[in-house]
Amino acid sequence: MIVRCTTVHECDLRLVSDKHRQATVALVATSLKRKLKDSRTIYTPSDIMRDVKHSFGCNIHYSKAWKARELAPLSIRGSAEEAYYILPAYCYELERMNPGTKTHIQTDENNHFVYLFMAVGACIRGFRSSMRPVIAVDATHLKSKYKGVMFVANAFDGNRNIYPLAFGIGDLETDASWHWFFTKLHEAIGECPNLVIISDRNVSIENVLRNLIPLLNLIVIISNIKRKEHVAQYLEEAGLHKWSRAHMDGRRYNVMTTNIAESINSVLRFARMLPVVHLIGEIVNLLVKWFTERRELALNCTTTLCPNFGEKKLRNRLEDAARMNVVKLNNAQFNVLDGDKDGLVDLTNNSCSCRKFRLEQLPCKHVVAVCRFLKVNVYSKASRYYTRKTWMDAYSDSIYPVEPHGMWDIPKDVRSRVVLPPVARVMPGRRKKIRIPSQGEGTIRRKCSRCGSAGHNKSTCKNNIPLRNVS
Fold it and tell me: Of 193, 198, 201, which is closest to residue 256 (Cα–Cα)?
């Protein structure tokens, strides 16, 4: 305790220093806790040096600021090793809070972590009842101490929102890891007729889906075309059914690329730096937020179809259909003249010669024109996946976050399970946090339209422009 405080300093001013021996790494790290509770906070060592100078009036070296930045998260979330130790208990609590949730932890013979799978019960039920049977899969690298790879399986709801279905963690993108992930995914969602899997052209995914389970495999190669010089030959060798909706046996609706999987990877770019338990916690918190927000949007929606896709597209097609002429061939078939490529509509099998109706399961402009001609409700021709009711059903179940660690009531058999960190060589130094672009993904340097120089645009241009002589 403080027994005496002298507020008047009589030290020799020649000995005054801007350093302070009590400004230790631990003390600086303690002062950072409040700012680093949110994993999305960008707080650099330079920021720490500036704030310590402003708050405490002393200078610290860059290395001390960096060590404090590394130590603060440990005091908030614990070490990476502790995260693996409490992983079984966390999964038990997640399943208890959210009925129907599927979690699996795979360890080796020495109890070292190998794989993790997680699919929240509300997402599984929503996918089976309300989602189009199209899943985009992808993997992204983790930036935590033991690194690894996160596997993601997403769907698209009727409003073109990402619908996360399942997540996995493994060591690398290998045949074994993808085989394990797809096996657990199949166990979670069960048999799903006409299911389509969309991915990049990862060799392991193709090997697994060819031999594992009776899924319809569709490989999207759009993201890899930039690095190919002979595009036409490349597409033909890959196979038309792998990239063309018109040549495949299944139906992928309007889902063309793996961008939905890439988007979820981008949303979790900061969470991927956290230990495994806290990464799963961030994912669950994200799902809680998305389900709550989208449930409110669906409840307040007044249109028959989802506003951002079905309703918007049909209204645009209604304007085009108003200018078309419809010729009745018989009670079921109609020829629609649009001035370009006419459409032959057959209402018996719900088809049109333009093929958009069958591929998207949403009335094309020719079908809309026929509905206007017959005074038929055009909404009745749209798939139920685009309706507001189905959109509401997808988010009808609530997702609950896991309670704080001190409130857990874990059975003895779960507490006794030992999960050690994966067998991996932890390299010294900082973790790479910036994604390395693939070949062909280089940034484009644009020139200023005012002065012609690169590196800025006309709104920020400060270069002098020579006056032109006007004769």
Answer: 198
